[in-house]
Write a structure and sequence with these properties.
CATH class of the largest domain in chain B: Mainly Alpha
Radius of gyration of chain A: 21 Å
Shape of chain A: globular
Number of strands of chain A: 12
Radius of gyration of chain B: 24 Å
Strand content of chain B: under 5%
Helix content of chain B: over 70%
Shape of chain B: flat
Number of domains of chain B: 2
CATH architecture of the largest domain in chain B: Orthogonal Bundle
Distance between the termini of chain A: 31 Å
Structural class of chain A: alpha/beta
Largest sheet of chain A: 8 strands, mixed
Helix content of chain A: 25-40%
Strand content of chain A: 15-25%
CATH superfamily of the largest domain in chain B: MetI-like
Oligomer: heterodimer
Largest interface: A-B, 32 and 24 residues
Order of helices and strands of chain A: HEEEHEEHEHHHHHEHEHEEHHHEEH
Structural class of chain B: mainly alpha
Chain lengths: 361, 317
Amino acid sequence: MKTNKLNEQAEGDDMTSAETAGGSGPDKAAPLLEVRDLQVEFKVRDNVTKAVNGVSYSVDAGETLAVLGESGSGKSVTAQAIMGILDSPPGRISGGEIYFQGQEILSMPENERRRLRGAKMAMIFQDALSSLNPVLSVGFQLGEMFRAHRGMSRKDAKAKAIELMDRVRIPAAKQRVGDYPHEFSGGMRQRIMIAMALALEPDLIIADEPTTALDVTVQAQVMDLLAELQREYNMGLILITHDLGVVADVADKIAVMYAGRIVETAPVHEIYKRPAHPYTEGLLASIPRLDQKGQELYAIKGLPPNLQNIPSGCAFNPRCARAEDVCRTDIPVLSQVTERDGTELVGRGSACHFWKETIHG
Amino acid sequence: MGSDVERLVMGRYVVRRLGQLVVVVLGATMVLFACLFVLPGDPVGQIAGSDKARDPAVIEQLHKQYGLDKPLVVQYGSYVGKLAKGDLGQDYTQGRPVTEILAPKLLNTAKLAVVAIVFDVIIGIAAGVIAAMRRYSVWDITVTFSTTLAIGVPSIVLGMIMQWVFVIKLGWFPLISDGTFNSLILPAFTLAIIDAALVAQIARSTMLEVMGADYVKTAVAKGLSRPVVLLRHILRNSVIPVITYVGISFGALLGGAIITETIFNWDGIGLALVTAIQQNNNPIIVGVVTISVAVFVVLNLIVDLLYAALDPRIRLA
């Protein structure tokens, strides 16, 4: 269902492009969002946890970027840095820039930044039950968006809330607007979160594992709804997930993260066929498949790295079957992936010393 | 939705809780009656005069008058019968109805309790909020240190220190209370400070807990301003446990602050209880206990109803 869009994007989808360099005002050619060399650390007493270590990615309007990785890979922290909702202290952005609609937002004064939040960029969290205030009705919480950003009256905001609940197909919205979060089912609650994020028709939505807490059948419904609304409003979507199944259906491109770095980027359909990083290979191999019934499931050996003590060289090297000496000493950079004959593969990058061996066998 | 059903459920809940009130009052007074009965000393001895001058005939007459010649069960039965009509009996020393004696004292205790609880809430919540918002700062350390200290100090010591400083050294307040607001401040403050320390600690810890909640992150992500996030999303959720504590504490205060009322000579039911114990004035003792038990149970009920009103997840059942 996304194939036509994928082709559209293929041209302007070069992640290593530096089109926006030096642009300070809104720039037509600039991507909707561009993260450049972002670094985030958490400091508790003398323990520094390096959660994000130089992440760069970009999203265009109408495009879906899936950020993939296990817990602790830095995908959520990057998202929170974009939204400006990091817990700080202990969290601290120690480097990098984030451009939103051509404007650097990390250096923005807090009250300007606050006006972006919710209105221009919105976030959907994983666990809707804990992410909604238990003592306020859902209608009130939806209405807050209009009251805070549009200065609407309580009554008008409530009418808007009902409209939104209808929009995300919550049955009997008018009767349920005064209900509290715990009175809804998990799927309905996540719809409310989506409605809240969409309330002011933002340009960018960040969905942090939006379906992880839901039943499989409900997952598909919620994901379809999100994809549909994204298309309708032509929003950029960053979909944070560890579920490769979800990604295949809705994403345009993928960024795989490991230990706070992007280890591979690719258009979505290509990564399944030909991964260019051993970690991605491992992730794909660990998807359970029907034709493997009875066999033991594959798991990447070892444990995710300790972020207070990231292995030298490539952070993945202790778990990697291809690792050689260079992997233990030199940090691999994200480099352009090419065909055997040297033709560049658009939008593909790998941070592996041996990406050629990985992709071309 | 279904507000009629909810109202019905709540009505039933209140009725059942009030039924419990009757059981608790009966139980408490029964135990108290038995205790006073087995205690040595003749309750009417004081009225009958000094030991030497006692006339056995007078004693017998008095026993008859107050029904003390009858068995315990009969005495208790007649007490309960009167209680049902709102009569707490007659006291031994003045021969006046207990309700008439205690009514103005209860009012005094209520005045003290209200002022104390207002101080308590203002000081406690303010200190807790400041400590939580400026965690690990000098403010936080000051609050943690001073509240721990305040909780450790018995009210009798604190009351005497207050008297020494503000009455004797500074002369701001009268030593002997005259029932005016001015003489109310010191005892109220003494009661409030220890309690406020607990309120501050509860407020601080619940604030910190709520500040880390996902829904607070959502509120920030929605682009709400700091005051809105703080008041509507953090404070509102933090005060719920505080209200429980304050409600119970208020109930206890209404039952008479024995030590504080005695130190400051505040003419409330706490002081009345102490005097009654010294004089073996059983009807007053039973009366004060009956009142405090009833007030405590009713306040607990109010707290529970308030709790349900503030947190929609709580169901009254």
